[in-house]
Design a protein that fits this description.
Blueprint (H helix, E strand, L loop, with lengths): L8 H9 L13 H9 L7 H15 L10 H13 L4 H18 L24 H9 L6 H12 L4 H5 L10 E4 L8 E4 L5 H5 L8 H15 L9 H18 L6 H6 L14 H6 L11 H9 L1 H10 L16
Antiparallel strand pairs: 1-2
Helix pairs in contact: 2-3, 2-5, 3-5, 6-15, 7-10
Length: about 325
């Protein structure tokens, strides 16, 4: 009997709907809509990219009257205001490109050349924290709101960026697994949630935050923990520490440093440093060949993760006697 002839007609209709012709979209008429329309095409544009362009465009359009074509004065005022808000030159360079795309999408004259583009320092200035600073933040967990505790737990467990923290939604985790939407063309991570921080996940429902609001969360955490940090210090400072500490701990336990690339979800062709300088070695390194457990990498790292041990002590309200076991600044 031909299975195609016995197929449920209702099921067939549902399947055919997937191949139906979508209604033709109406062209955008407003400046913001035209920008978004210009950024979309056959190649999928990452959601984070669209959000970044949209955020810059909204800031700039708020300075204009309705149907106003911007002049050089409006652009200059925009960048002056952003500098007063202590926005870095690197961010302004990105927003310069955003505004150029906005002008192009709307047929506005672009009044600048490459020489006008903001120029960041060759090496961006980074403010580092020490492992002991991270320990201080974790031990002050009782002072935080549920949201502050949640984001600190994520940031000190995995190697995440600020933008990746803003992307977390309730549907991204259940009682066992947590999906991290890695930025910068990294691979989406599906990680086990360590037992020690499961109650933190279960008690909080994330809401969408802007990067600026997420920076505010970091500052409130530091204030409540009594930790003074230099201006412009943010979540990236924690990312530096977690990455540095794990890179120091992993070899001491006889593990290949490349395990952290899989743990962090970095793009395989970007795993150059861990594999002797060859991008192809990073591409062909597949830990799943030697370990069939899809979560084996996480189980191994969690066993030696120093900050998870501190979370266990902090949540259990048991402060160990003696000195901290974390590496010192000189390590």
């Amino acid at each position: 009997k031909n299975p195609a002839l016995s197929r449920d007609p209702k099921s067939s209709r549902k399947m055919s709907n997937k191949d139906s012709v979508l209604p033709k979209p109406k062209p955008a008429t407003d400046p913001l809509g035209k920008l978004i329309e210009s950024l979309t095409g056959p190649r999928l544009t990452p959601k984070g990219t669209l959000i970044s362009y949209e955020r810059t465009a909204k800031r700039f359009l708020a300075l204009l009257e309705k149907n106003q074509v911007p002049t050089r004065a409006e652009y200059n005022y925009f960048f002056d205001q952003r500098r007063k808000q202590e926005t870095s030159e690197r961010t302004l360079q990105k927003e310069f490109a955003h505004l150029k795309a906005l002008a192009s999408a709307n047929g506005w004259p672009w009044l600048f050349t490459k020489r006008d583009r903001p120029r960041p320092d060759d090496e961006p200035e980074h403010h580092f924290l020490s492992p002991q600073d991270i320990e201080q933040l974790i031990r002050a967990q009782a002072n935080y709101s549920k949201g502050e505790r949640f984001y600190l737990a994520v940031a000190t467990t995995w190697i995440v960026r600020r933008v990746e923290l803003t992307r977390i939604k309730k549907r991204d985790f259940d009682d066992e697994l947590f999906t991290i939407h890695t930025a910068k063309h990294g691979r989406k991570i599906k990680a086990l949630i360590p037992d020690v921080i499961k109650p933190i996940f279960q008690s909080y429902t994330p809401r969408e935050l802007t990067p600026e609001a997420m920076s505010g969360v970091f500052q409130r955490i530091c204030t409540k923990a009594g930790l003074k940090v230099p201006p412009r210090t943010g979540w990236h400072a924690i990312r530096f520490v977690v990455n540095t500490v794990l890179n120091a701990v992993v070899p001491k336990h006889g593990l290949h440093p490349g395990i952290l690339s899989s743990y962090a979800g970095w793009a395989r062709t970007k795993q150059v440093d861990a594999y002797g300088g060859s991008a192809m070695m990073g591409y062909y390194h597949r830990p799943e060949i030697l370990d069939s457990d899809p979560y084996g990498v996480f189980k191994v790292v969690y066993e030696i993760h120093p900050f998870l041990k501190i979370w266990k002590q902090a949540l259990g309200r048991k402060r160990p006697a003696g000195k901290s076991s974390l590496p010192t600044k000189a390590t």
